[in-house]
TrEMBL record:
<comment type="similarity">
    <text>Belongs to the ornithine cyclodeaminase/mu-crystallin family.</text>
</comment>
<dbReference type="InterPro" id="IPR023401">
    <property type="entry name" value="ODC_N"/>
</dbReference>
<dbReference type="GO" id="GO:0019752">
    <property type="term" value="P:carboxylic acid metabolic process"/>
</dbReference>
<protein>
    <submittedName>
        <fullName>Ornithine cyclodeaminase family protein</fullName>
    </submittedName>
</protein>
<keyword id="KW-0520">NAD</keyword>
<dbReference type="InterPro" id="IPR003462">
    <property type="entry name" value="ODC_Mu_crystall"/>
</dbReference>
<dbReference type="InterPro" id="IPR036291">
    <property type="entry name" value="NAD(P)-bd_dom_sf"/>
</dbReference>
<dbReference type="Pfam" id="PF02423">
    <property type="entry name" value="OCD_Mu_crystall"/>
</dbReference>
<dbReference type="GO" id="GO:0016491">
    <property type="term" value="F:oxidoreductase activity"/>
</dbReference>
<dbReference type="GO" id="GO:0005737">
    <property type="term" value="C:cytoplasm"/>
</dbReference>
Length: 316
């Protein structure tokens, strides 16, 4: 059985190939049952979350990801997300690979955001703002910069020192990134705003969004998590990665549905419909678009297959 650690997983998932693999999987015939989602008590801290996410391509591959999210790890200088992906043969059930789940999750999440932005963000977007300083932040910067001529990239976090460290890492990769302290000013200026936080209260206010802005929300994955407010929902054309996941698990969708700020039929499309061309994405330059992603198991399967086949090619 092949075992890929964090560094090997990162090396196997180059952005162009990963974005293409996820697009192909969304457009294909992947079977994706509803994921298992469990709260895990941590004495003296916020609850952790255990996620089990299965998916398969009949006759080809079967996979499952087990991920834990421990918010309290921020105070221990540890990543909030740990996990492992197990990939098996879809013909025999033979175990083929164990892949670092944290790195796979971070990269496929960012790649999915970049994929959605191809349909929803302004084609000439020049300014990106990323909110959050966790594991997703550098990945979101890199993925959104793939294939775009971004002239200015800002990174904001509640901890300015952490934001500066992310900016320094991104600059070392050749990206023009600066830590910002005024979230409102940065949001009002940005063409693309990408949020990857565990916030339970809105960070981005709808009144800040300029005409033509694209708001990408990927951090919240539970009904009580929220990265933007009802004003954003009312002003924007709303898109999701999957309807089934978003209306059940995404606080940025679940809460507006309850308040009446959003109706299910007002969700313009899910990502597979954009990719297949059965529903349109951005239609006017001044449209404000909002993409809410809670993560889909098919994204993990696409990344796991790519990593496994990449590693097999290198071993051949």
């Amino acid at each position: 059985m092949l075992v890929l650690d964090e560094e090997q997983t990162r090396a196997a998932l180059a952005w162009p190939a990963l974005i293409a693999a996820i697009a192909k999987m969304f457009a294909g015939d992947c079977v994706m049952p509803v994921r298992h989602h469990h709260d895990v008590e941590v004495p003296g801290e916020s609850n952790a979350t255990l996620l089990l996410m299965p998916a398969w391509l009949p006759g080809q591959y079967v996979g499952v990801k087990m991920v834990s999210v421990f918010p309290g790890n921020a105070g221990r200088a540890l990543p909030a997300i740990f996990g492992t992906y197990l990939l098996s043969s879809g013909r025999t059930g033979e175990m083929l690979a164990a892949i670092d789940g944290g790195e796979l999750t971070a990269r496929r999440t960012a790649a999915t955001s970049a994929l959605a932005a191809r349909y929803l963000a302004p084609a000439d977007a020049e300014e990106l703002l990323v909110c959050g300083t966790g594991r997703l932040s550098l990945n979101l910067i890199q993925a959104h910069a793939e294939g775009r001529e971004l002239k200015q990239i800002g990174i904001w976090g509640r901890d300015r020192d952490k934001a500066q460290r992310v900016a320094d890492e991104a600059r070392a990769l050749g990206l023009n990134v600066n830590a910002v302290s005024d979230l409102e000013a940065a949001a009002r200026s940005a063409d693309i705003i990408s949020c990857g936080t565990l916030s339970r209260t809105p960070l981005i206010q709808g009144e800040w969004l300029k005409p033509g802005a694209h708001l990408d929300l990927v951090g919240g994955f539970k009904p009580d998590m929220r990265e933007t407010d009802d004003v954003s929902i009312r002003r924007a054309q709303v898109f999701v990665d999957t309807r089934a996941g978003a209306i059940k698990e995404a606080g940025d969708i679940v809460q507006p549905l309850k308040s009446g700020a959003l109706t299910e039929d007002a969700i313009r499309a899910e990502l597979s419909e954009l990719i297949r061309g059965t529903r349109p994405g951005r239609t006017h330059d001044d449209d404000i678009t909002l993409f809410k992603s809670v993560g889909a198991a098919l994204e993990d399967l696409a990344g796991a297959i790519l990593a496994y086949e990449h590693a097999q090619g290198k071993q051949a």
